[in-house]
Amino acid sequence: MPQIPVLVQILVIFALVVLASAKKLHLGLAAALGGILFGFLQGLSPLLVLQTILTELFKADTLLLLLLVSGIMVFSSAMKQAGGMALFSKALLALVPSRRLALALAPVLIGTLPMPGGAILSAPLVDAFDPQRSRSATTLSATNYWFRHILELCWPLYPAFILTATLTGLPVNRLMLLNLYAPPLLFLLGMIFILPRQNTRLPPALPSPAAAPENKLRLILEGFTPLVLIIGGYAVLDLLWRLVGPLFAVPAALNTLISRYAWIFTGLIAACLYIGLRYGWKSYQKAFNLSTLKLTGVVAGIKVFAALLTAAGVAESSAAELASLGIPALIAVALLPLVPAW
User: Fold this and answer.
1) Is 249 left (phi over 0), alpha (psi -120 to 50) or beta?
2) Burial 324-333 (b: 16+ CB within 10 A, else e)
C-alpha cells in the first residue's frame, strides 16, 4: 500500500480538526486528537505520544503561557465590568474621532509589542468600539488579527524581524526601510476589505468627549492608564533587562522565560492592582469564568498538536517530499514555513 504523503496527511488532519470544531467539539480537544492521530499515522508509539503530551503540558513555557492567558482574561473581564473598556474607547475617540479608524488602531497599539497573549488583550478593546454590533463577530475577529500584525515586517521588536536581520546579515535600519511599505499598505487593505465604510448611518455608540481641554486630557490619561501600565511596564522592564541581564550570566533557557513572561506579568499585575484600587475589587467578581477555562483549553490543545507534529518530524518529512517532487528550492523555502504554521 503506497505511503500517503505527509503534506496530504497534514491537510486531512487539519480539515478534520476544523470540521470537528464546526460540529461544536472543543477546539483544543479537536486539535489534540488531531495531533494524536497524526502521530499514530507517522508511526509514533502510544507511549511516545503520551510522553510528548505530558512533556508539553508540563513545560514551564506552556504553564506560564496558560497562566498568562488566564490572567489577561481576568484583567479584561474586570476592566469591562469596571467600565474601563468604555473609558478606553472614549479616550481613543477623543484622539481619533472616527469609530472605524479607532477599531483599526486599537489592535495596532497592542501590536507594537509582541507580547504573549496580545490577541486576547486587544480583542475586548476592539469589541468595545462596536457595542451596537454594527459589524459581525467574524469581522471584529479579522480586525483584531489583521491590524495587530501589520507592523511585524518592519518593527524591530518582533522576534521574526530580528531573526530575519540575523540570517540575512542586513542592518536593522536597512531592513526596516526595505519593509517600510508594508504597514501603510496592509493598513489600507484592511480598511478596504475588512472595515469598509458602512452605508447605514448609525447613532453615536459612545458619548462625545468633553470639550474642555483639561477634561479631555483627564479622560485620555484615565482611559489609557491600564494599558500604559501593561505595555509601558513591559517595554521599560524588557529594555532594562536587555541592558543588565547579561551581567548576571543567566542560563539561556531561563533568560528566555524571563524575557518572554516576567515583564508582561509585572505589567499585568500592576494594571490589575490599578483596576482594583481605582474601581473597586468587586470588579473581579466572576472575572474568572468558564470562558477563561475554555480558552486555556484551546491554547493547551494547540500546544499539544504542535508538539506532536514536531515529534513526528513533519518539517523534515515535508522538506524531503517537496525536494523529491522537483519543486524549485525558492518555492520550497516559501512553502515550508506554512507546514508547521498549520
Assistant:
1) left
2) eeeeeeeebe
**CB under 8 Å to 167, separation ≥6 — which residues?**
none
Using CA atoms, how far apart are residues 39 and 226, in angstroms rounded to an integer?
43
| C-alpha closest to that of 34 among 48, 56, 19 | 19
Position 337, amino acid: P
Closest CA to 223 of 70, 90, 110: 90
Residue 53 domain-assigned (yes or no):
yes
Domain range holding 325?
Answer: 1-82+287-342
Phi, psi of 245 (to 5 degrees): -55, -45
| Residue with grid cell 491537510, as numbered in its chain | 11
Interval 212-269: pLDDT, tens? 566 888 888 898 999 899 888 888 998 899 899 999 989 999 998 998 889 989 999 9
- Main-chain dihedrals φ then ψ at residue 151, nearest 5 degrees: -90, -5
Q: Is 96 within a domain?
A: no
Contact 102, 206 (CB under 8 A): no
- The answer to whether residue 61 is domain-embedded is yes
3-state SS string for 291-310 = HHHHHHHHHHHHHHHHHHHH
CA distance 17 to 36: 12
Q: What is the 3-state secondary structure (H, E, C) of 132-185?
A: CCCCCHHHHHHHHHHHHCCCCCCCCCCHHHHHHHHHHCCCHHHHHHHCCCHHHH
- Identify whether 94 is part of a domain: no
Residue 45 has φ and ψ, to the nearest 5°, of: -75, 155
Query: Residue holding cell 475588512?
Result: 194
Q: Which of 74, 82, 79, 130 is nearest to 102 (CA)?
A: 130
Domain count, the chain: 1
Query: Angle, nearest 10°, between helix axes 118-128 and 137-148?
Result: 130
Those residues of the chain that have pLDDT short of 70 are 1-2, 116, 157, 159, 162-163, 166-167, 199-214, 329, 332-333, 336-342
